[in-house]
Amino acid sequence: MEFAIGGDLYYHLNKEVQLMKEGFSEPRTRFYGAEIVSALGYLHSNNIVYRDLKLENLLLDKDGHIKIADFGLCKEDISFGDRTRTFCGTPEYLAPEVLEDNDYGRSVDWWGVGVVMYEMMCGRLPFYSKDHEKLFELILTGAIRYPSKLSIEARTLLSGLLVKDPNQRLGGGPDDAKEIMVQDFFKPIDWEKLYRKEIEPPFKPRVQSDTDTCYFDQEFTRETVHLTPPNARSGPLDTVEEMDEMTNNFVQFSFHGQTSSSLRDGGAEMAVDSAE
Predict the structure, then answer these.
(1) How confident is the model at residue 6, as a pLDDT?
(2) The pTM is what?
(3) Which pLDDT score, from 0 to 100, does residue 241 have?
(4) Which of the residues 52, 61, 70, 109 is marked catalytic?
(5) Which of 104, 118, 155, 238 is spaced 20 to 30 A from 3 at the CA atom?
(6) DSSP run (H or E) holding 59
(7) Residues 83, 53: contact at Cβ < 8 Å?
(8) 67 with 61: CB under 8 angstroms?
(9) In terms of C-beta density within 10 A (0-12 exposed, 13-18 middle, 19 or more buried), how is residue 155 classed?
(10) Hey, what CATH class is 9-195 in?
(11) Looking at residue 25, what is its pLDDT?
(12) More confident residue, 124 or 229
């Protein structure tokens, strides 16, 4: 994919919280939320469940439009009524049905939309604990607290998306994304114009060049670039030993061929393989 020069929404929300002590405005969240819903609706229409929605995977292009990145946890061949059961995702964004180790469908993505939209408008996660066991208990049984500043339309949307029962969750029916698109919160959105990118984004990255990295944390941009694999090959791998050697080049990634689970502290990704 091309360089998303605007950085990710995690970076931008952190800056907003530091400066304004609160999250994005409702109009800004509405725009981002609408583009996310549109993108996920497209994936679902092609029988793909995304399964890892979080601010770090939501990037901005040069004009300020959303791009969803990192499709490593996607599951194909899931239409309405189909189920899968792999325990995967990022802890703070996991849907209750995933934590309960139940079969689940595409509505896990709409739970993720609820979490990221809550996070954008409120400046914090709806459920959080450094202890994953406590975090999971909060997701399964905890009540959500909404700031008084939220409009009725925003609160209604979030409470519909963050329903713990996937069968009752907004978007959980056969109409999928359309259930969300007709909500009062999204009434100002002209979905056809949004699809054609004719709605001006609320924020446009101000960059000095096509390689400007000002919207990326210096923790990452200061790192020395290491190419993997270190030794270029002109042909295919010939032996099992060569394949094992190549696999070792990717152990620092959250997903690689020989691992069945991975967990990063903080915004950790987890994947436990099972029969799907």
Answers:
(1) 85
(2) 0.80
(3) 53
(4) 52
(5) 118
(6) strand 58-60
(7) no
(8) yes
(9) middle
(10) mainly alpha
(11) 97
(12) 124
